[in-house]
């Protein structure tokens, strides 16, 4: 597989071949393959309702994974995002119940998300504390803060207008899908074609070289974390506004699901490599696998083991592929 | 190698004086405040009971100190605890193992889980952070999958001796922790193996070129971490008398916080077992003190998170200043 991934690129054998060997193509292929195989076993899997549920229910993961991809491409990691989304959902829900105008209800998570992440980004970039320590600390601050402030109470009686995720544009295009696709495309274009987007790859690939080329790695890391906070805010909206009840417990393992999506999507955990189209496709693949397990009568308790196995295999494949490329090149 | 060793020896005492005196001072102040606020705090019963509660995290903190000294990290320890606890209960209840064999099997599975981490880190060169995030998910997932959310209860009476009994008036598990602390302290301070850990943390490439067995050393410490998680799971199950797949969730935070608070640098090359012990005691007393003064359990994890970030900041600023000075 790795020779397939490398040789077309090296020999310049045309774009089509190169695309076929890309992570995005592999993911698309896997998504279709699983749909066909599970569909043959249990045709109910291919019901329109099930397929849309897979995408609708996980659009927020995909949006959060866009931000995570930026962070990982820049050579960092964030394990606080799950707790942050829990906190933002509670803030947004509380404001809605308190009768605050909807625009503010929807904007506040975005602003708070950017502030919290920018703070972490500043500590990582300017005080040079590894992102793992900062976000591990923030994880416990947010998680502990959420439970102590809410006292474990759930937010109920959310006003009808709150449910942004239920809106369907022109009666057929659901909001979460629209936002997921738009955010993915915009982020992909920005990362590929803009100078600030390229700066993320430069910083993650080799921060010292980036600095010598006139890129400020510190400012880039700060910007990446701030943007990650923005995506976390958007993800919160898609997540919270599809719920009837907002629980004060953080969605368990959400940060792991988001990291898995980014890594399975082809973002190299060593930094410098990856696309957000990959992370969005990977989100859909992971959600599809979770749903497929149910349809082939495997207990849903195995889902985290499957996710963990998936992340492990992708990481090892990524590292082996890189190593071979270094030897070959 | 000789130069490296002298460099370490000459820099260590100065650092020791700074960080551990600071810690001891903070600990003394915290103790004083806790005593004033609560008369139940400074009773033998309370303190011994805190020792009981400290053991599971403490056992994990010893190999974690080794790992962080080499510049690595193990985020999967909490999940290994959960996996081992489930294996213990499952192999006894469902596979019909005699209970002592189930314990040995569970600890062995912990060792294998740690060995797998070490193998991928040394052979495939997966960064420790990434490898153990992946196995954090994988091992917890295996625990959930194997247990199917069923808990195991009704262990025989003798099994609870380790977690609830005492010997010479001291909780049973505290003896295990004490033995572990002494052993880890001697290994780190007095053996070639221990010095190798510092050398790897200071400069891995240099350590390799000096002919030190870098990969074998790393493989051993990650395996030790898994074994410690197995023993920790055994102690935990014996103490709480039941097995659930979410056991040990979040332990990695407490463990890393204790080690980092104890002065082991997350950048590698610096740290002592004694520092870790002080860090461990501080966190446990902080938790206990806050609980006794009426603060809920969830608020204490805020404090641990804040302490973790703050102590890294302080350590790195001391570290930076020393670099500038020398």
TrEMBL record, chain A:
<feature type="transmembrane region" description="Helical">
    <location>
        <begin position="134"/>
        <end position="155"/>
    </location>
</feature>
<feature type="transmembrane region" description="Helical">
    <location>
        <begin position="252"/>
        <end position="270"/>
    </location>
</feature>
<keyword id="KW-0812">Transmembrane</keyword>
<keyword id="KW-1003">Cell membrane</keyword>
<feature type="transmembrane region" description="Helical">
    <location>
        <begin position="167"/>
        <end position="190"/>
    </location>
</feature>
<feature type="transmembrane region" description="Helical">
    <location>
        <begin position="106"/>
        <end position="127"/>
    </location>
</feature>
<comment type="subunit">
    <text>The complex is composed of two ATP-binding proteins (LsrA), two transmembrane proteins (LsrC and LsrD) and a solute-binding protein (LsrB).</text>
</comment>
<dbReference type="GO" id="GO:0005886">
    <property type="term" value="C:plasma membrane"/>
</dbReference>
<comment type="function">
    <text>Part of the ABC transporter complex LsrABCD involved in autoinducer 2 (AI-2) import. Probably responsible for the translocation of the substrate across the membrane.</text>
</comment>
<feature type="transmembrane region" description="Helical">
    <location>
        <begin position="302"/>
        <end position="320"/>
    </location>
</feature>
<keyword id="KW-0997">Cell inner membrane</keyword>
<keyword id="KW-1133">Transmembrane helix</keyword>
<keyword id="KW-0472">Membrane</keyword>
<keyword id="KW-0813">Transport</keyword>
<dbReference type="InterPro" id="IPR001851">
    <property type="entry name" value="ABC_transp_permease"/>
</dbReference>
<dbReference type="GO" id="GO:0022857">
    <property type="term" value="F:transmembrane transporter activity"/>
</dbReference>
<protein>
    <recommendedName>
        <fullName>Autoinducer 2 import system permease protein LsrC</fullName>
    </recommendedName>
</protein>
<feature type="transmembrane region" description="Helical">
    <location>
        <begin position="25"/>
        <end position="42"/>
    </location>
</feature>
<feature type="transmembrane region" description="Helical">
    <location>
        <begin position="221"/>
        <end position="240"/>
    </location>
</feature>
<feature type="transmembrane region" description="Helical">
    <location>
        <begin position="54"/>
        <end position="74"/>
    </location>
</feature>
<dbReference type="Pfam" id="PF02653">
    <property type="entry name" value="BPD_transp_2"/>
</dbReference>
UniProtKB/TrEMBL annotation, chain B:
<keyword id="KW-0812">Transmembrane</keyword>
<comment type="function">
    <text>Part of the ABC transporter complex LsrABCD involved in autoinducer 2 (AI-2) import. Probably responsible for the translocation of the substrate across the membrane.</text>
</comment>
<keyword id="KW-1003">Cell membrane</keyword>
<dbReference type="InterPro" id="IPR037294">
    <property type="entry name" value="ABC_BtuC-like"/>
</dbReference>
<feature type="transmembrane region" description="Helical">
    <location>
        <begin position="299"/>
        <end position="318"/>
    </location>
</feature>
<keyword id="KW-1133">Transmembrane helix</keyword>
<feature type="transmembrane region" description="Helical">
    <location>
        <begin position="21"/>
        <end position="44"/>
    </location>
</feature>
<feature type="transmembrane region" description="Helical">
    <location>
        <begin position="64"/>
        <end position="90"/>
    </location>
</feature>
<feature type="transmembrane region" description="Helical">
    <location>
        <begin position="219"/>
        <end position="237"/>
    </location>
</feature>
<dbReference type="Pfam" id="PF02653">
    <property type="entry name" value="BPD_transp_2"/>
</dbReference>
<protein>
    <recommendedName>
        <fullName>Autoinducer 2 import system permease protein LsrD</fullName>
    </recommendedName>
</protein>
<keyword id="KW-0997">Cell inner membrane</keyword>
<dbReference type="GO" id="GO:0005886">
    <property type="term" value="C:plasma membrane"/>
</dbReference>
<comment type="subunit">
    <text>The complex is composed of two ATP-binding proteins (LsrA), two transmembrane proteins (LsrC and LsrD) and a solute-binding protein (LsrB).</text>
</comment>
<keyword id="KW-0472">Membrane</keyword>
<keyword id="KW-0813">Transport</keyword>
<feature type="transmembrane region" description="Helical">
    <location>
        <begin position="258"/>
        <end position="287"/>
    </location>
</feature>
<dbReference type="GO" id="GO:0022857">
    <property type="term" value="F:transmembrane transporter activity"/>
</dbReference>
<dbReference type="InterPro" id="IPR001851">
    <property type="entry name" value="ABC_transp_permease"/>
</dbReference>
<feature type="transmembrane region" description="Helical">
    <location>
        <begin position="97"/>
        <end position="120"/>
    </location>
</feature>
<feature type="transmembrane region" description="Helical">
    <location>
        <begin position="167"/>
        <end position="188"/>
    </location>
</feature>
